[in-house]
Amino acid sequence: MSNPYGNNDPYGQQGGYGQPGPSDPQQQHDLYGQMTGYSSAGSSQSAPEPDPYAAAAPNPYDPNTSVNPYGAYTEPASAPKARKSSVLGVLALIIGGLGVLVSLIMAIVGGNAYTSMVDQLGTTDIPDVPPPNMEGDYATFGLTFLVYAASALPILAGLIMGIIAIATNRGRLFGIIATALGVLGPITVFIVFMVIAGPAAISNTP
Questions:
Q1: Nearest alpha carbon to residue 92 among 178, 184, 182, 186
Q2: What is the Cα–Cα distance from 195 to 53, expressed in whole angstroms?
Q3: What is the spatial distance between Cα 188 and Cα 82, in angstroms, rounded to a whole number?
Q4: pTM over 0.70
């Protein structure tokens, strides 16, 4: 008996719902691969891009980093320098000044003693053995010469101490005065002696 609906069976081989799935395993594998590739591509496109500045941020606790987490270091303000004592310059002036003063006194006393001897002898050739009436003048002149020679030591000490005081700024003003006395003091003493004893020496020169 013939089919009244012909070959157009609405249900035919369609299995009721849509197209049947592929029955070949190879086709199933290809279809699964395409779906997997699509999902992978979609995942790669939707992933967020890495922040290029995130890796550049320094770690404040990394010992190799040059960033100071506590801020820039500032050196503490230096305390004002203590003023150096001027004791050295004062001592140089006192010692050198006393030496020059003693030398000046001895120059005056020695010049007068020399003038007295030359006037009594009538000549500048003073004998080693004094005459009986000139023993006092000989003793005074000899003592004056010894004290004058000894006074050179404090003058020299004051000169050296004054130079050190100037170099180290320990009483520079006093050191300058002591140095000037150490240089000019002996010259002044010699001039004073020559002023006192010079006229007698010139008048009694044969």
A1: 178
A2: 96
A3: 38
A4: no
29 token code pair: 């594998």
d(CA 139, CA 141): 6
Phi-psi category of residue 64: left, alpha or beta, with phi > 0 → left and psi -120 to 50 → alpha: alpha
Q: Where are the domains of the chain?
A: 96-203
Q: How far apart are CA 129 and CA 136, in angstroms?
A: 12
- Backbone dihedral angles phi then psi of residue 45, each to the nearest 5 degrees: -75, -30
Residue 122 DSSP label: T
Question: Using one digit for the tens of pLDDT, what is the confidence trace for 15-36?
Answer: 444 444 445 555 554 544 454 4
Whether 118 contacts 200, CB under 8 Å:
yes
* Segment 95-122, tens digit of pLDDT: 999 999 999 999 999 899 889 888 888 8
Length of the chain equals 206
